[in-house]
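Notebook B, p. 112. Complex prediction, attempt 2.
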Amino acid sequence: MLTAFGSPGAALQARTSDVIALLNQRARDAWRLGPDATLIGRVVEWLRSPGNSIVTLGDASYPRALINTPDPPPVLYAKGRLELLARRSLAIVGARSATPGGVRDAEAFAEALGHAGLTIVSGLANGIDAAAHRGGLRSEASSIAVVATGLDKVYPARNRDLAHQLAERGLLLSEFPLGTPPLASNFPRRNRVISGLAQGTLVVEAALHSGSLITARQALDQGREVFAIPGSIHSPLSKGCHWLIKQGAKLVESAGDVLEELGMQTAPAAASVRGDPPSEEEVQLLEAMGFAPIDLDTLCEQLASPVEVISTILLKLELEGHISRLPGGLFQRLT
Amino acid sequence: MLTAFGSPGAALQARTSDVIALLNQRARDAWRLGPDATLIGRVVEWLRSPGNSIVTLGDASYPRALINTPDPPPVLYAKGRLELLARRSLAIVGARSATPGGVRDAEAFAEALGHAGLTIVSGLANGIDAAAHRGGLRSEASSIAVVATGLDKVYPARNRDLAHQLAERGLLLSEFPLGTPPLASNFPRRNRVISGLAQGTLVVEAALHSGSLITARQALDQGREVFAIPGSIHSPLSKGCHWLIKQGAKLVESAGDVLEELGMQTAPAAASVRGDPPSEEEVQLLEAMGFAPIDLDTLCEQLASPVEVISTILLKLELEGHISRLPGGLFQRLT
């Protein structure tokens, strides 16, 4: 209707027959029934509470990242710091029945990424989601919970305190009208908003067939990055993450890995590997190299050493991040 | 010299000045000193023992995979089942100070891959190497140890029993003359033979900067597959594997993952994920799909369901391996 009439006002003023012609059966029925006065009254009342607001597709505060998805919700109910919708954000999702280690990782990644300026988006579920929100709330970038119920309800009840903290220092968000109970069919639909709000989705622990994989899949469909934390091949809750990595998700070991991929950190890839100071023979080779690209034969001549000795030292220097291998059999000193 | 003269016989008959012109200083000195009669006597004596043999670049039994590397050793000393050199093989390498879990994994992967027909190649070191040999020895495809000493020595001494088993039911291999002690500089050189013999290299546990990463790097340079087993992001012995996966190594969770990549198993990628039987709504959708490619809108019409419901079921079916997503927004039933 927005495409056909240009604005909600124009649609409301259009001839009924023109409107009806555009709609499928379910929408026609809704149109004939007209607005639900009770629900509207409830929403108007709800909007009087401080912190509550409604954001529609046409509003300036509607999240830009979400507009660039195939199916953005026309209306978002919001409770909390609406300005968080304008920030760079990362979704962190995973298993409800997470391991203690997974919970710790989710919290630590969320806190570190929050301090780096990313608002943490998740779904207020138990386990990884709740841990991600807790970690995010510790930074100024804070956290957004996208829920599958009306904002006048908290699901699961166990996360009531967390929901209150999010309403005060973060943001609660829902596309579902007030009063909507937790319905199984709404959760996958909600997941597309979690991935759609964020620049990328990090999966911390996930079983095969789990909802977290649906969120990750939707992130890929939306053209966003997908990150996954690996674990033991014997842990059922790592199998979903491993499956994602096999499908092309980025394996991450640290918050730095995520920031680097999102272009928020300029450290060279080698930096994470660099560590040991070069040995005496390595220093000798580095000095012989200079900083211009050089080939193996020239190095062997300069140092009067056989190929196998020099190539072994070059491999070590490469692994330690001191040199880089260039196309055409050339090597270049980096440090 | 082989390139210049065509055969060792022709080289030996060539004029000394022609030979000398080809050689660098070290090789000239060796040429002037002439053959080491003591070493030759020792080798001739050693060759009298059953199971001992020498394979040179020109022999039919010289491993074909090794010829296709930049720097194949001209001579290989061998002890055991020489016919193993003609078989498809996989290198399994990793940390000497492996965890008990890593040792179990190395042994289990080696045994399963051995039963699938792959001879297991490793370096007779403690930890992962030894476990890989033990697992490989349990299958008919057996195991090859490529060592960095002369074959009249066993290093490390702790693996003496294992070396005897390999000599009897597998193969010990070295490019170094009899009497060569364990020298640090020979180990990376030896590693190129481990990776060069095999179709791929599987790294089970490895620290950053470790020799296993050098072997993996050499496998890549030799155009072979590299596989790595992931683990906890908090385990130092998984960091090398994670680094390799980030560089493009294949993450593997099972022997099947390796076999599939080597084209030795035709199971579709989805098979490892498939599990739960489809639910009632999934069966209904599968039946509506038929086995020809179909688009989302057509499915929604056929089932008179909204897009979000159908696309959610499609995602589940895809994750479970029952359908495949084709280019152009089409879906196809697989099961």
